[in-house]
Amino acid sequence: MDAILLTPALTASPFGLFLLDKALKAAHAAGASPNRIVLPRGLDPALRARFIGEAARQGLPCVEGPTPDSDDPFTAFLAEVPLDLRLPAGLHDWHAHTQFAYCGRGIDLQDAAALSLALGVETQGFSEHAFALYFPGDALKFRWQGNPAFVEQVWATPGRGRMAAYREWVKSLRPLLGPRVRFGLEVDLFGGGRFCLAPEDLEGWDYLIGAVHEVEGLTPGATQAEIESAWLRDVERLLTMPIAILAHPFRYFPWAGLPVPRHLYRPVARMLAQAGIAAEINHHKNPFELDFFRACLEEGTRISLGTDAHVTRDIADLLPHLRTLDELGLPLSETLRPAIQ
Ligand SMILES: [Zn+2]
Ligand SMILES: [Zn+2]
């Protein structure tokens, strides 16, 4: 059991608390289980209190002690071993959320973008849920999917829920954040296979992601075979929409407490390849389907990476993705990157 040692440069960084979290994740990825955090002596008491609070959130004690002297804020130490918290070149994350998500209370888009770029992510995409922008939070249960009249009613209002405000905000952020930060939406189906994006909102994005969070029209007591065929129908419909990426392709099943239909890996991989739509590697609360991605590579399906971060500290958490690419033998250079650099 080792300690994570934080240097004066790291604790002085505006990203310091996030870097503590990244150091723990890097240590775990390296197979270690750190048992305490060591802060440099003489920290400003308010800053020390913030680090103690973050360590407590992680369930670890935080003590003061001698820590290595390094000028690099992006290096922490696992005992004497330096942990470089920067990511390798060539990473493009197309899937992160913002404070506009229902569950995005712990994220600030500008902080998240700055942290991501500082850690070396080349393209940081934000793809907010279109439904979260249109509908109030109590629509989270996807009741709107079976209620096209409600959807159209929202679309007929000038603000379209919070969508018009979000579009204005994105427009104002683009010049501040520059071309390495891209803006898209994560879009579902509704009303028997329609794309849940108002005609006015089709344009203005760098890319769109499609997702099946809920399968339409299932009756209680549906069998696994009925659910699979309704899910596949929705995936097929979604692949005719103007999306570049299919988010978390098989996640519907584990989240619904159902067995994952492994026999559909190849048909879905083939459908994606034919549609020219990328399959997303997404580890967010997601049991991982390595064999599906193996089928994708055999079928020539493109692969895209998504953290699906809903809190700032999870932004740029791409170590699991790098491990997956390693297991697949896929070089980073072959994952989805911006068409225009
Ligand atoms: Zn999603
Ligand atoms: Zn998402």
Low-confidence segments, ≥5 residues, pLDDT <50? none
Distance between the termini: 44 Å
Q: What is the helix fraction of residues, given as a range?
A: 25-40%
Mean pLDDT: 94
Largest sheet, order of strands side by side? 6-7-8-11-12-13-14
Largest sheet: 7 strands, parallel
Q: CATH topology of the largest domain, anyone? A: TIM Barrel
Small molecules held by this entry: zinc ion
User: What is the class of the largest domain in the CATH system?
Assistant: Alpha Beta
Report the radius of gyration as a whole number of Å.
21 Å
Structural class: alpha/beta
**Total domain modules:** 2
Give the tags.
five-stranded mixed β-sheet, seven-stranded parallel β-sheet, 12 helices, 2 domains, single chain, alpha/beta, binds zinc ion, 35% helix, 341 residues, TIM Barrel, 14 strands
